[in-house]
Amino acid sequence: MDALCAAAVDLARDAAVEVTGADQVGDHLGITPDDDRVVTHYFDCLSTGYHGWRWAATVARASRAKVVTVDEVVLLPSTEALLAPAWVPWSERLRPGDLRTGDLLPTPADDERLDPGYTGAEEEPDEFAQISPVAYELGLGRPRVLSQYGAELAARRWYAGEGGPHTPMAESAPAQCSTCGFLVSLRGALRPGFGVCANEYSPSDGRVVSLDHGCGAHSEAAVMPALAEAVSPIVDEFGYDDV
Length: 243
Prior knowledge:
- It is a single chain.
- By secondary structure, the chain is of the alpha+beta class.
- The chain has helices at residues 3-6, 9-20, 90-93, 125-137, 148-160, 168-171, and strands at residues 25-35, 38-45, 53-60, 69-77, 114-116, 144-146, 183-185, 194-197, 208-210.
- The strands form three sheets. The chain has a four-stranded antiparallel sheet with strand order 1-2-3-4, with helices on one face. Strands 7-8-9 form a three-stranded antiparallel sheet. Strands 5-6 form a two-stranded antiparallel sheet.
């Protein structure tokens, strides 16, 4: 380590004070050799907004020169510094439930959850216009449809959620949704495993449920007991009591 640069503590402090002010530069914390005749001096940062940071003033001298000069002064974090979290793109920060009224959530063109819905509309627009009502009726008139990967993601999410079989409600149910008259079947790849509940008294009303889900509002949960016929009272006309 260069002795002249290491001894230039006052020069380094004056440079840091010139940058930020005397009230922001604290005690000398140490030095680090960066290269031949290049040393960095560290000073405590007294700013309340930069806890754990330190001022770094780098000094150097030319070969065979006896005069030390200042290269730069910067504010650097130490191992105990408060740092902002790493920046994450919005598409990775987004979580279910974040979308609010008026928000728009663009779907990337290469989203793996979707596949092209139809082809040939650009090459033969007149012919497609004639069959498009039929296509829409069959559910094929959308530019993109759910891919197999997208269906698998949805199935895993739904099966592990509140509409799946591993909830206290489902485990205590008298029967599964697959035998319930209020179950509305889905169509497509998700039909074999899921449906929509249509019982207004069920906590799952209007929600997707797995076929092995269940609740106490199952259509066959219980049979209402029949009303007993009224029985005429029996009057004893022969016995009597002494009064």
